[in-house]
UniProtKB/TrEMBL annotation:
Protein name as annotated: Amidinotransferase
GO biological process, one term: L-arginine deiminase pathway
A single GO molecular function term of this UniProt record: arginine deiminase activity
Pfam families: DDAH_eukar
Length: 281
């Protein structure tokens, strides 16, 4: 693995990851999941450790949720879907599919035990940071994916319940390709000004509106299908699944360093590096 670039700032990114103790594919709720294709669980465990080390080397501080009692929730490893966090408040997911609804209990417990207040809504489908990405350090702008997993009503509810004394802006982005069912599978802000994305995952109106908000650099379809946008940005390092060389070159031109890790086992569940992480601080 290439040596990460050291960040000029000393702001440490704090990230939550769930240990993949019970990770497997035993149901199908997205086009990537086929329960007849076996997951190599031992390999998944090693890939998860490698991802965690890569993020730590890049300068992130990782908190680990131990999935005690969660043997019926193989997707709990996708911590991105737990919630969207602002300050010490977590707006919890309300999962779209029955198979994942029970995960809320474990994430809620972790947040409460770790000093966070939890809010949310039991009527409105919302899948956490899988569908909600901050584009700014001060968390003043939130891009939300809407459609497959998250209900448009979540946009106002998240804005209301996370605003505290400092309101922020929420942008709804309509997802239209079933392969890219969460916004973090097709859009990744690198900083306040620029993001990489796969434009065709969004409807025309969203494409237009997003271009007005942030500079967008497209990844090709091959890399998009290889989860190039499902990347974790830590300082100037971008940790992602291996094999997206063209996107790697694009990132280098933008002054970022791609760090490739093998996420093959998680991709069998429709998730990659970013899906296994949740931005806390
Ligand atoms: N199997 C999981 C699901 O379909 C994968 C979740 C991926 N998470 C993400 N943040 N994109 O719900």
């Amino acid at each position: 693995m290439a040596a990460p670039l050291k960040s000029a700032t000393n702001a440490v990114k704090k990230i939550l990851m769930t240990r993949p103790t019970y990770f497997t594919v035993k149901y199908s709720i997205n086009p990537w999941m086929d329960p007849s294709v076996p997951v190599n669980e031992e390999k998944a465990g090693k890939q998860w450790e490698t991802l965690k080390s890569a993020l730590e080397s890049a300068g992130a501080a990782i908190e680990v949720l131990e999935p005690n009692g969660a043997e019926n929730f193989p997707d709990l490893v996708f911590a991105a879907n737990a919630a969207v966090v602002r300050g010490k408040r977590a707006y919890l997911a309300n999962f779209h599919y029955a198979e994942r609804k029970g995960e809320k209990f474990f994430f809620d417990r972790w947040f409460k035990e770790n000093g966070y207040e939890t809010v949310g809504d039991d009527e409105i489908a919302f899948e956490g940071a899988g569908d909600a990405l901050w584009a700014q350090k001060n968390r003043s702008k939130l891009f939300c994916g809407v459609g497959p997993r998250t209900d448009a009503r979540a946009l106002d509810d998240v804005a209301k319940k996370l605003k505290n004394d400092e309101p922020f802006t929420v942008f709804g982005c309509q997802l239209v390709d079933p392969r890219f069912y969460h916004i973090d599978t097709c859009f990744c802000p690198l900083n306040e000004e620029v993001a990489i994305w796969y434009p065709k995952a969004f409807d025309q109106v969203s494409q237009h509106n997003m271009k007005n908000e942030i500079e967008l650099v497209a990844v090709n379809e091959k890399d998009a299908k290889n989860f190039a946008c499902n990347a974790v940005v830590v300082g100037k390092n971008v940790v992602m699944n291996q094999g997206s060389d063209e996107t790697g070159k694009t990132l280098e031109k933008l002054g970022y360093k791609p760090i490739f890790v093998d996420m093959s086992e998680f991709i069998k569940s429709g998730g990659s590096a970013k899906c296994c992480t949740l931005l806390l601080e």
